[in-house]
Amino acid sequence: MKKLHIVAAVAATIAFAAQAQDAQIDRKVADLMKRMTVAEKVGQLHQLSGRQFTGPTSSAYADKLADIRAGKVGSMLNVTGVADTREIQALALQSRLKIPLLFSLDVIHGYKTVFPVPLGEAASWDMEAIELSARIAAKEAAAAGIHWTFAPMVDVARDPRWGRVMEGAGEDTYLGSRIAAARVHGFQGKKLGATDSVMATAKHFAAYGAAVAGRDYNAVDMSEQQLHEVYLPPFKAAADAGAATFMNSFNTLNGIPATGNAMLQRDILKGAWKYKGFVVSDWGSVREMVPHGYAADLSDAAVKAINAGSDMDMEGYAYTQHLEAAVKAGKVKMSVLDDAVRRILYKKFELGLFDDPYRYSDPAREKTVLNDSSHRAAALDVAQKSIVLLKNENKLLPLSRDSKRIAVIGPLADSQRDLEGGWVVQDNRARVVSIVEGMRGHAGKAEISYAQACAPGCATTEGFAEAVATASRADVVVLAVGETWDMSGEAKSRTDITLPGQQEALFTALKATGKPMVVVMLAGRPLVFNTIADQADAIVYAWFPGSEGGNAVASVLFGDYNPSAKLPITFPRSVGQIPLSYAQYSTGRPVTDEKNVVYKSAYIDSVNTPRYAFGHGLSYTDFKYTGLTLSSPTMTQGQKVSLSFDVSNSGKVAGTEIVQLYLRDMVSSVVRPLKELKGFQKVHLKPGETRRLSFTIDRDTLSFFNSQLKWGAEAGDFKLMVGSASDDIRLEGSLKLTQ
Ligand code: BGC
Predict the structure, then answer these.
(1) Per-residue pLDDT reduced to its tens digit, 509-536
(2) Which member of 282, 311, 381, 537 is catalytic?
(3) What is the pLDDT of residue 54?
(4) Are 491 and 565 in the same domain?
(5) Best of 282, 286, 492 to mutate for ligand 1, by most ligand atoms within 8 A of CB?
(6) Residue 338 belongs to a domain
(7) Is residue 124 within 8 Å of residue 130, measured between CB atoms?
(8) Is 196 considered catalytic here?
């Protein structure tokens, strides 16, 4: 009891201190704003890209420097490093009011040390690992003068044609929401303003991941239900985790560009969610409302964007050129301008930049932090946790070190750049360990031979004969194929997501040797690879695993690390099945027998099931699920029910299982998906060990966005499913909500 009182007292003191800090900053902001002209206020809303794009010697850059000195710029992106950020900050401090700049950058999966791409990290389902990755990225970036990252991307994405699936957490709302919060906590650390953390950005608000036909920047058309239930919750989770900023998006949502969308930015974000941070536009998205056909010209775009709640204009030049006149003409109220400025200045005070504008730009700290060797160890750990074992026929993996000769083959086998993936933002990055190098380092007595067969992209078959000869001399073949680093990411939509170039032909040529084949695949999205899926003995999906990628892959192949990752996104059999998610609906004509699909919701040329389902991922051991019990078969809205069961490691090696809880609401006012993920736990078990696990089910677990466009749970029956993947349910139970 006494302890509880102490905890409550400490919490109250912290809350009181936070309120006092808020009030103090509010006063400072108000005082500063009294002294600002309209032009200076507009300056705070203008974000400009830095020297990488313009070059220090260009005349355009000279104009921009003058703008900074004149207080016409509030923030810069793409200026990195202590020396450059100090130099540019010094210019801002020559302005009349000496308001410091915010330096921002796309620190998406590491700064100097490169971690797996975000979709890969999502496959770990490991919140601690994901938070650690963001924490280290933040430490390194903050030591290099950066205050603010444009991450995490929390867009739910169910279309692997869209190249940006690589940047997010995959297709699921629940998993995506948990990851959104973990990444925000990682980037921002314990407290904004600590010089080892950066402000996070939840992007792209909203529904950007649902671009029609998976074509980047395309329109989005979706129901209120989908928006509120599937696409918004990860943003809400990021806001609740304290994300300092939001970024809006390039797409239209039901006809209104997100950047000019007051329903999203004013009603939902700043209204219903009471969000106190600020919203930055996406690159030029204010200006793009003109080609969208939503704004007549740049001036109209400026008016529409700020009135709709876009606070800062990234490289759009609409605010800097037109906002002052729009305020004078009464098209934008002074209170609207003031609100945007207040939000931005608040963050500058919160980061402590008015006390010391250079506090993130300390040369000694930059040197120490960027050379911290513990960061590499963390990158290895996260990469290992991200690698998915898709297939392991006849337990070919793990490879025995007694196998005498292992041939490592393929266009990506000795590549370094392709292991990093897109969005690497620092030139002087950590050294990358290639797959061949990693294999050599882990091989022990086994002998490793290598043949590239073709260059990344695999345009020709000239090197195939040599590769086949190398394979023929070996006992087992490891083939490294996939997308090159620049094939996924922004503006990298593809209509064909099979392996690029001649890579599948390379597989077939090697397979003809009759040697056992392990395929290691690198990619930023789910690929379609049916021949390999059918014929390879083992498949390991490594995504783009980062600086330590080669070591991570080798440790999995040799069994030094027992893989545990699970797919955070469905792998289709063909592009024709897309979009495909495990959370699909029954329809009135569900397929119950794949042999009889006439007049069923089916294809005449393909089964409905995916190649690899959401949540799929194998281990070198086996897990058994038994003994499901519910603390009660019924519950009321106010009650909670506990679902328990045993998970045992029935194999011969220690391993980690990601146990998944799914649910279906059987009858409701809006038809519900066949399965929705509602919980997961990661459990490490020694051989023979059994652990009893529990999930708590409450009203929130059973709630959805109902026919009245409100969240709530409806009375009736629910099916509860526990399993190892969305298509590998091991235990089922049912629960009745009585009122
Ligand atoms: C992307 C954003 C990114 C911004 C700044 C845009 O093209 O959509 O995600 O943060 O550029 O680099």
Answers:
(1) 999 999 999 999 999 999 999 999 999 9
(2) 282
(3) 42
(4) yes
(5) 282
(6) no
(7) yes
(8) no
